[in-house]
Amino acid sequence: LAMAATFPATGTGFGTFSTAYPLFRSPEVRLFYRHAHNDAVQLAAEAGLAGVLLALLVLVPLAARLPAALAGDAPPLAAGLALGWLTFVVHALVDFPFHLPASAATAAALSGALLGLSWNNGRA
Q1: Residue 102 belongs to what H/E stretch?
Q2: Residue 91 burial by CB count (10 A; 0-12/13-18/19+): exposed, middle or buried?
Q3: Distance (Å, whole) CA 70 – CA 18
Q4: Most buried of the four, 8, 11, 27, 118, by CB within 10 Å?
Q5: What integer is the mean pLDDT of 19-38?
């Protein structure tokens, strides 16, 4: 979080956490971490406010569709896509799954499919 506060606008740059981390590590910590072990914190540190706002451009519309998808007010496929996406969100609460390209690509595909569905009176 100190790294994100030091570089608030654009962060340190994607993929630079391991390079910038030693500057912010407290003297008591002797371990070296390549990742923040929290996707949101690492995004804020590496991409700054600009990256967080870009991520919110996708996450806010997606979150707005979730209630309708889970309530059955959308095409049947929407519920499965929403549950798959929520699985990644719950996983991200206890781990950092988006550092794995396969997980990030799957979450992106689920997000794109959910946002791209035709929502005409609950029918595809």
Answers
A1: helix 101-116
A2: middle
A3: 39
A4: 11
A5: 82
Which residue type does 55 have?
A
Measured between alpha carbons, how far is 34 from 21 in angstroms, rounded to an integer? 8
Is-contact 117 88, C-beta < 8 A? no
d(CA 68, CA 122): 9
**99 DSSP assignment:** G
Per-residue confidence (pLDDT) for residue 108, from 0 to 100 = 92
Are the C-beta atoms of residues 74 and 62 closer than 8 Å to each other?
no
- Looking at residues 53-63, what average pLDDT do you find? 92
Structure tokens that stand for 117 in this block: 């569905």
pTM for the whole thing? 0.73
Q: Which residues contact 35 (CB under 8 A, 6 or more apart)?
A: 17, 18, 42, 96, 99
As a whole number of angstroms, the distance between CA 52 and CA 47 comes to 7
| Mean pLDDT of the residues in the chain | 86
Kindly indicate the confidence band of residue 124, based on its pLDDT and cuts at 50, 70 and 90.
very low
